[in-house]
Amino acid sequence: MNYKKSIVGSSIAFIVATSCCWLPALIVAIGGGSALIGFSNGLEKYSGFFLAIGLVFLGFGIYQYISKKNSSVNNEVVLKSVITCPECSYNKEETMPTNACQYFYECENCKKILKPLENDCCVYCSYGTVACPPIQLNQGCC
User: Fold this and answer.
1) What residues contact 40, with CB distance under 8 A and at least 6 apart?
2) Which one, 57, 72, 121, 136, has least CB within 10 Å?
3) Which residues have CB under 8 Å from 2's CB, separation 6+?
4) What was the pLDDT predicted at 75?
5) Residue 16 Ramachandran class (φ > 0 left, ψ -120 to 50 alpha, else beta)
C-alpha cells in the first residue's frame, strides 16, 4: 500500500466517522425522510471506530511518505547502463534518461530494434546492467 492510498483511506474513514454530524443536514437539504435520518443516527455509535481507523490510515500514510522521501534522497541514481543486444551480443554503455522511459533501442551492430520484455518497463530494465532511474528509486515503472 502506498502513502496516497493510505491518505485516501483515512479521508474516507473521517468522512464516515463524522457522517452523524453532516449527513442529517444533507438529508434535510435534499428533502429526505426521517428514515434516512435514523440511518444516519445509527452510524453515530460507530464514529469512534471509524475515527480510530482514519487516524491509523493517516499516520501510516504520513510514515510511508516520510520514509519514501528520505529513502529517495539517500539513494544515488546510476545513470550509466550497458545494453547488450540479445541477437548479436553487442553491448554499449548508454546514459539513461531521467525524465522519460526508453521503450525502443536500436542496436548499432545488427540494427535490431529492442523492446522491453513482458514484465519490464523499458529497454534498460530488460537488456541493461542497471535498472532505469524510477526502478532504482522504488517509484515503480516509468
Assistant:
1) 19, 20, 23, 24, 27
2) 72
3) 64
4) 58
5) alpha
Which helix (H) or strand (E) segment holds residue 83: the answer is: strand 80-84
Q: Is the separation of the CB atoms in 129 and 80 below 8 Å?
A: no
Separation between Cα atoms, residue 49 and residue 71, nearest integer Å: 33
Contact call for residues 140 and 134 (beta carbons, < 8 A): yes
Spans in the chain with pLDDT lower than 70: 1-3, 20, 32-41, 43, 68-75, 142
pTM of the predicted structure, to 2 decimals: 0.47
Integer Cα distance of 64 and 99 in angstroms: 24
CA dihedral sign, ordered 77, 81, 86, 87: positive
Positive or negative CA dihedral for 43, 48, 49, 50? positive
Q: CA end-to-end span of the chain, whole Å?
A: 18
CB–CB of 100/81 below 8 Å?
Answer: no
Q: Where are the domains of the chain?
A: 3-74, 80-136
C-alpha–C-alpha distance, residues 58 and 7, integer Å: 5
Give the phi and the psi of residue 61 in degrees, each rounded to 5.
-65, -45
